[in-house]
Amino acid sequence: MTTPNKTPPGADPKQLERTGTVREIGSQAVWSLSSCKPGFGVDQLRDDNLETYWQSDGSQPHLVNIQFRRKTTVKTLCIYADYKSDESYTPSKISVRVGNNFHNLQEIRQKKFS
């Protein structure tokens, strides 16, 4: 999602989209996963249903790769994780990396969860 202003933490991204504060741009990208179990892939990750999700099926690190066809500025990234519902699959750390291709990615943000 992109936004011209700073979005407050915990804000509802769907509400912000309805009011025109942000714009969802994920559909403009090509999404890929390091692995997934059948029926728990990109479609479930992006379907706006909090009852469905991505479930990896391989060794760590578990990666979500989002590639835009052209240079794109992303100002806000919204991630929904529900530790209470399934702590075993909730990440302990999320790293955001950017670059011109997969081989020159540089970490710009990291968030640890406990």
From TrEMBL:
**Quick check: keyword Cell cycle in the entry?**
yes
Do you know which CDD domains this protein is assigned to? APC10
The membrane-spanning stretches of this chain are none
**UniProt xrefs under Pfam families:** ANAPC10 (PF03256)
User: Biological process GO terms, please?
Assistant: anaphase-promoting complex-dependent catabolic process; cell division; protein K11-linked ubiquitination
Tree of life domain: Eukaryota
**SUPFAM superfamilies per the record?**
Galactose-binding domain-like
Q: Which UniProt keywords apply?
A: Cell cycle, Cell division, Mitosis, Ubl conjugation pathway
- A GO CC term? anaphase-promoting complex
Which ranges carry the DOC domain?
A: 1-114
> What family, per the record?
Belongs to the APC10 family.
What name goes with this protein?
Anaphase-promoting complex subunit 10
Tell me which species this is from.
Answer: Trichechus manatus latirostris
Task: Provide the organism lineage as a comma list.
Answer: Eukaryota, Metazoa, Chordata, Craniata, Vertebrata
